[in-house]
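Fill-in record for 2-nitropropane dioxygenase.
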Amino acid sequence: MTDPAFDTAVTRAYGTRLPIVAGGLMWLSDAAYVSACARAGIVGFLTAASFPEPDALRAEIRKTREMSECGAFGVNVSMLPKLVPGERTQEIFALIAEEGVRFVETSGRNPEPWLPMLKEAGITVLHKVPSVRFAEKAQSVGVDMVSIVGAECGGHPGLDLVGSFVNLALAERRLKIPFLIGGGVGHGGQLVAALAGGASGVVIGTRFLVAEEITAHPDYKRALAGARETDTMLSMSSVRNTIRTLKNETAQTVARMEAENPEIGIEALLPHVSGRIGRRAYETGDVSRGMLSAGQALGLTGEIAPLARILGGLEEEALAALARLRPAPARSGEEIAV
Ligand SMILES: Cc1cc2nc3c(=O)[nH]c(=O)nc-3n(C[C@H](O)[C@H](O)[C@H](O)COP(=O)(O)O)c2cc1C
């Protein structure tokens, strides 16, 4: 039986057991991973940008549905201009609606232009933003839920770099729609803290990178499992596209180039930051090169394990956190000290 504390707007929206969302992971959120999330009782999102050919995305959606055993899943549409140009966004949303997908996670840009068609198709929109001011904007344009990922997160923490604990408190004061907190979440106690602070759930990326169902070389996962919270770094802020990645040769080269020439521009950085190099690292396990998104929750990853076991650990920690907050009821006949 799931603890009633975990019954939130998030579990009700997705029909999931736990108020945890597995955020889209470029190149890594495929049918194997997303369906493992569904089977384990949380919702995950295929990354549309990892499947540039519409037929490939369509096939991956169908495969995910088959493997999900009726569990919830959705598609992440990162609307960063470089990844998915505007014209494709429309096409991707149309394909998602056609395939009967019920959930999307949007990020990178205001989804307002597409909300009417998504609502028409009965799709629940979870929009991801890097700070509470953007969450307020998303709320005003009518998204269903919003996740706010703080400075600790793997991938793009935005430019404000506000930490997740401050985001939680600000969001509780400023938002009326259900919100999730992400960035650095890798312990069940953090889920309870988020729920106590007014969130309806958490979004996780980094902590799940060591899941057995993630399609990546074992050496990549071993490197992450052995990494610490201090093994990430920020770069790309000179081109207003700040990213937190594993601290490796590539990230250090990019940061040095930016420090030497703050006006450097994306063209000069592209040979280092191209997604293809990162993708190769997932295939070969050589983590010294490529911009490999990873957050401070690396310090909480532990060993490579099936996703269900990782989730089981988070749930146990969350229950222990709840028990710390709830005093044990007095047993009959026991005197209550005054
Ligand atoms: C390897 C990796 C790839 C990611 N790719 C995407 C992506 O394509 N689209 C997106 O919206 N978010 C992406 N994210 C962000 C995650 O969905 C999630 O918001 C974030 O990882 C949460 O913070 P955490 O890493 O501290 O758990 C990525 C994160 C990681 C670690």
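KEY FINDING: Residues 232-284 form one domain.
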